[in-house]
Amino acid sequence: MEFLSIPAILGYVVALVLVASKLLHPDGPDRTKATIAAAVAVAMHGLVLSGEIFLDQGQNFSLTNTSSLIVWLLTLAVTVMLPRLKVIIVAPAVYALAIISVAGLWLLPPQYITNFEAKPAVWTHVIISLLSYSLLLLAALYALQLQGINKRLKDRKLMLNSSLPPLMTVEKQLFHFIWVGFVMLSVSLLTGWLFLENFLGDGFGHKVILSSAAWVVYAIMLAQNHWRGMRIPTAVAYTFTGAGLLTVAYFGSRVVKELFLN
């Protein structure tokens, strides 16, 4: 599958250059060309991941493969929305992450074999968990952008004719991703309780606790925004906290086990 990684990386590079080179231009980047290049890269990246994950002896959900899969889901979402998405300033960061994730499949190939064939319900839980984390990670990227625009406004560095997206547009998009990600995280936790035996044991306890803590953070954030409104720094803090808890839940122990204990 290594030969498919080359067009994947090249496609992401082309999409990155097309979007980033004219990101702040009044007319914006050529979305059609960027979408085509990114679509080719996403397809190649998906084929590479398929070959790396689905092995004869089971599914290889190593740290490298799992993180690359999450980046692939992020990139797929951004690419699908690119032609009509009002706020695309996060696209260069996503495509840059995709380049790194494809290269990582070469550089960090540890194995973590599992078998989901006999447990389709568990497979459903895993997919929903990855989707929810990807959306909430994308929301964190929007929060980073929101923080930057808000800071420039306070410092009077953002002119009225700036090509950066309006603050309210970014804020609305942020809460849209938070809502969708929150619903999927809720389904993920529910399916975990229903389908996984010994959900709080077998090394899953810390994941459940941290994921539940993230759920509480997002729930408080959405409730507070609905009933009282929320200042931008507070929204950014909530978003980063939730994403941080999920990142530690999903990858904390895996980093230690795969990169340091093996």
Brief summary:
With 262 residues, the protein is mostly helical. The chain has two domains: 1-115, Four Helix Bundle (Hemerythrin (Met), subunit A), CATH 1.20.120; 121-262. It is 75% helix and 3% strand.
3D architecture notes:
With 262 residues, the protein is mostly helical. It has 2 domains: 1-115, Up-down Bundle (Four Helix Bundle (Hemerythrin (Met), subunit A)), CATH 1.20.120; 121-262. Helices cover 75% and strands 3% of the residues. The chain has 8 helices and 3 strands. It has helices at residues 2-21, 31-53, 63-81, 91-107, 120-154, 167-195, 205-227, 232-261, and strands spanning 54-55, 58-60, 113-114. A 3-stranded antiparallel beta sheet has the order 1-2-3. Strand 1 (54-55) and strand 2 (58-60) form a beta hairpin. Helix 1 (2-21) packs antiparallel against helix 4 (91-107), helix 3 runs antiparallel to helix 4 and helix 3 crosses helix 5. The longest helix has 35 residues, at 120-154. The chain is flat, with a radius of gyration of 19 Å.
